[in-house]
Specification:
- By secondary structure, this protein is α/β, with parallel strands linked by helices.
- Strands 2-1-3-8-7-4-5-6 form an 8-stranded parallel sheet, with helices on both faces.
- It is globular.
- The chain is built from 11 helices and 8 strands.
- Helix 8 crosses helix 9, helix 9 packs parallel to helix 10 and helix 10 packs parallel to helix 11.
- Bound molecules: manganese (II) ion (MN).
- The site of manganese (II) ion (MN) has 6 residues, from loops.
- It catalyses: L-arginine + H2O = urea + L-ornithine.
- One of its GO terms (molecular function) is manganese ion binding.
- Belongs to the arginase family.
Length: 303
């Protein structure tokens, strides 16, 4: 496995609550570097990117803080692109989920250049497929998937070398349980592959993950975009946008272990951790615990 490169992006520029800007430090305090090194991995932590302050303003044309969102995403795009170019496995420590745009646009351009097939697992309570026309809030952390698929303002849809950065069939969304009305129609039109909680309840997390991971091959670059609000708020209170009815501890572990079993994860975002809502950094410690599983830690020895 290649060396892991941690990239901190301390901002809440696209969020509806302040505090995700403290996410990178909370993950470090919870021991993310040590945990990965204990797993035998080489880890470099390049510290944090910098970008504009959050002006905390109302939306303009349906977007909050668009120029600042663009600036942060450019910084993330460049850092992730550079990491992949240097054969590092980038782990983005967010920050809110608007940064998934820059991160995945970089991964998509890298994959195009190297003839790799890209598959994205989007672990989230929300579909993040809003547009300025249908968004109830203007918060851009609800829009990155639409922007990646080419729906959004040119400043965002053209953040990388290609527009659209990805095709809808390259993304699998897991854990979805809160979708806005207009967004519902749009994800249906775009034929997004969504494993929502209803479906997971019906067929079980194991089968849902088997389906989501079914067409991986040796040439696949698997990107995981892990929004901490994917998890049930009972175990993960430290997010701004909790939605009840998410995966519990064991289900979340199984998701991570099944991803690890593929041996194809080549980039990762950990986003929306919000220490201002957390209880003594408990959610950050859980995120680190799950990331260890993503990188192959399991309870029992398995062959
Ligand atoms: Mn999200």
């Amino acid at each position: 496995m290649s060396m892991i490169r941690l990239i901190g992006a301390p901002t809440d520029i696209g969020a509806g609550h302040r505090g995700a800007s403290m996410g990178p430090e909370a993950l470090r305090v919870a021991g993310i570097v040590e945990a990965l090194r204990d797993r035998g991995m080489a880890v470099e932590d390049l510290g944090n990117l910098s970008g504009p302050m959050n002006p905390w303003k109302p939306p303009v044309n349906g977007y909050r803080h668009l120029p600042q969102v663009v600036e942060w995403n450019r910084a993330v795009y460049n850092a992730v692109r550079e990491a992949l170019g240097e054969a590092r496995l980038p782990v983005l420590l967010g920050g809110d989920h608007c940064l998934g745009l820059g991160s995945i646009a970089a991964v998509a351009d890298h994959c195009r250049l190297h003839g790799k097939k890209l598959l994205i697992l989007w672990l989230d309570a929300h579909a993040d497929f809003n547009t300025n026309q249908i968004t109830p809030s203007g918060n851009v952390h609800g829009m990155p998937v639409a922007c990646l698929c080419g729906i959004g303002p040119p400043e965002l849809t053209q953040i990388g070398d290609h527009c659209p950065a990805i095709q809808p069939e390259q993304i699998r969304q897991i854990g979805i349980r809160s979708v806005d009305a207009g967004e519902k129609r749009l994800v249906h039109e775009m034929k997004l592959d969504i494993y929502d909680m209803r479906y997971i309840d019906e067929i079980g997390i194991k089968r849902a993950m088997e389906e989501a991971l079914s067409d991986l091959d040796d040439n696949t670059h698997l990107h995981v975009s892990f929004d901490v609000d994917f998890l049930d708020p009972e175990i993960a209170p430290g997010v701004g946008t909790t939605v009840p009815g998410g995966p519990n501890y064991r289900e979340a572990q199984l998701v991570m272990e099944m991803i690890a079993d593929t041996n194809r994860m080549a980039s990762l975002d950990i986003v929306e951790l919000n220490p201002a809502y957390d209880d003594h950094n408990r959610t950050a410690r859980l995120a680190v615990d799950l990331v260890e599983s993503l990188f192959g830690k399991s309870t029992l020895m398995r062959l």
